[in-house]
Specification:
Order of helices and strands: EEEHEEEHEEEHHEHEHEHEHEHEHEHE
Low-confidence stretches: none
Shape: globular
CATH topology of the largest domain: Quinone Oxidoreductase, Chain A, domain 1
CATH class of the largest domain: Alpha Beta
Number of domains: 2
Largest sheet: 7 strands, mixed
Strand content: 25-35%
């Protein structure tokens, strides 16, 4: 074991502050990583503040990790010292169940081990995330990051990126499809970039007209203002796919009306109860409302490779770790375009 610097919260009301954690020694199948950048996900805030009533303290958040390999175990062949790598939302799974064998570790029947606040079978207690100097991860959960993309702006790909990429690929979004991305934030801006790169006709759907210019800069062909009923009527029944990134309780019915026959709306943002939905909107067009979380390791690597080919990264604002509590308040107030990334060198200050 070795002791490393980190930032942690010790109860739901506490700010994040400096804290020392233990990392395990490198085992045969392990990769040790010096963390250079870590993205700030809204899930970090939910866990720190125990919004989902399952937090384990102290919480060391962070599951959008970019770093360099500093040591590998004797069984590791695909990674070497100095290599640029990433770690996302998972650091382990049973690797034996049908879902793991089908490259769907996020649905592991035993429960995927999350990068933080998951069970730590090596040291006991729970796992600690990327708001820290180093991390040691099983080789099966380490990802190769393309060298041709900005490493700091690549960090949020490990959560925001795969969360939006996975449903676009699973529902086979392709060239010529009409795709609506609902909500322009950390997830929505990546949905626009990916759908555009896949060749779709991309429509940003938002309540905020002032976001139109930014949406088009990101790759949207058109902007639909959801509070303008005339505009909504013009697009009724025309979308092949809707990616719904709204993170709070809302009414699905207006968006269901936008779907074409046999089309799907996928929820990736609202992990909470929603308003009542009228079944007629689905039945009338054999439409579907589905949900999606992150992807498995294979799919996440495919996403990173696609980003390398198309030079796609996230729009970010860099911060030092000492400004993390202020950054949390800004995320809650939607005051960031579109993700914060922590420069982990600041942890040494």
């Amino acid at each position: 074991m070795n002791t490393v610097n980190a930032f942690a919260a010790h109860d739901p009301e506490a700010d994040l502050e400096p804290y020392n954690i233990e990392r395990r020694g490198v085992k045969d199948d392990d990769v040790k990583i010096e963390i250079t950048y870590c993205g700030v996900c809204h899930s970090d805030i939910h866990q720190v503040r125990n919004d989902w009533n399952n937090s384990k303290y102290p919480v060391v958040p962070g599951h959008e990790i970019i770093g360099r390999v500093t040591e590998v175990g004797s069984n590791v062949e695909d990674f070497s010292e100095g290599q640029l790598v990433g770690v996302g939302c998972m650091v382990d799974s049973c690797q034996q169940c049908k879902h793991c064998k089908n490259d769907l570790e996020q649905f592991c029947e035993e429960g995927a081990v999350l990068t933080y606040n998951g069970p730590d079978e090596h040291l006991g207690g729970h796992t600690f995330g990327g708001y820290s100097e180093q991390i040691v991860v099983d080789k099966e959960f380490v990802l190769n990051v393309p060298d041709n993309i900005d490493t700091n702006a690549a960090a949020p790909l490990l959560c925001a990126g795969i969360t939006t990429w996975s449903p676009l690929r699973h529902w086979n979004v392709q060239e010529g499809d009409k795709v609506g991305v609902i909500g322009l934030g950390g997830l929505g801006h990546m949905g626009v970039k990916f759908a555009d790169a896949l060749g779709a006709e991309v429509v940003m759907i938002t309540r905020s007209p002032e976001k139109a210019d930014d949406a088009k800069r990101l790759g949207a062909d058109e902007v639909l203002i959801s509070t303008d009923q005339e505009q909504m009527n013009e697009h009724e029944g025309s979308f092949d796919f809707l990616l719904n990134t709204i993170p709070v309780k809302h009414d699905l019915d207006p968006y269901i009306q936008l779907l074409a026959v046999d089309a799907t709306m996928v929820l990736v943002g609202a992990i909470e109860p929603l308003e009542e939905m009228h079944g007629g909107g689905l039945i009338g067009g054999r439409k579907r409302v589905a949900g999606s979380i992150i992807g498995g390791i294979k799919e996440t690597q495919e996403m990173l490779d696609f980003c390398g080919e198309h030079e796609i990264t996230c729009d970010i604002e860099m911060i030092d770790i000492q400004n993390i509590n202020e950054a949390y308040e800004r995320v809650v107030n939607s005051d960031v375009k579109y993700r914060f990334v922590i420069d982990m060198k600041s942890l040494k200050n």
